[in-house]
Amino acid sequence: MEGALPGVNATQVTRPHAATKPVRWAADAVAAMREGARLRLDYSAQSLWRVDRTIEEISRQSPPYAAVEPVMRGFGAYAGEVVVRLTGGEWWSSGGDHWVRTPDGRLWDPIDEARRCFHGDGSLRLLCRDAASKTV
Questions:
Q1: For residue 88, what is the DSSP state?
Q2: What is the pLDDT of residues 55-107, one digit of tens each?
Q3: Of 21, 33, 53, 128, which sits most exposed with the smallest number of CB within 10 A?
Q4: Does the pLDDT value for residue 20 go beyond 50?
């Protein structure tokens, strides 16, 4: 194959294609929080506490979910990217849905967890904690 590096395949030098959209959504959420709420998100597990609190604050205002769905998708993607960076996992996608697969083979749905958090029944911080734990 012309232009290829001998012994190196694309998966060794690039992130999976499935990561493209969630990584962009996460970066957009980080930028929006920095510019709009003056809140810096640093892709740490601890930062997910602030994200959970922000989702709770949005939920208390009772907007229709459809109005905040892109924001929740961004927060979920941010949490997924935290899990990817913390555990060495990777993004997977199928049919427009995106999950994180941790090295132990478990699949996580941080975007749905953000939706659950908005409805009062989820936590991105706890999802990250569970994903980082080695027990199954």
A1: T
A2: 999 999 999 999 999 999 999 999 999 999 999 999 998 888 999 999 999 99
A3: 53
A4: yes
User: What are the residues whose beta carbons fall under 8 Å from the beta carbon of 47, sequence distance 6 or more?
Assistant: 41, 82
What is residue 17's predicted lDDT score, i.e. its pLDDT? Answer: 77
Range of the domain at 34: 16-132
Is position 3 within any domain? no
In a domain, 47, yes or no: yes
CATH code of the domain covering residue 35: 1.20.120.1090
Domain count for the chain, please give it: 1
pTM given for the model? 0.84
Residue 8 lies in a domain: no
Nearest to 128 by CA among 75, 71, 77, 82: 82
Residue 100 in domain = yes
CB 90 within 8 A of CB 121: no
CA separation for the pair 75, 136 (Å, rounded): 25
DSSP-derived 3-state class of residue 74: helix
Residue 136: band (very low, low, confident or very high) from pLDDT cuts 50, 70, 90:
very low
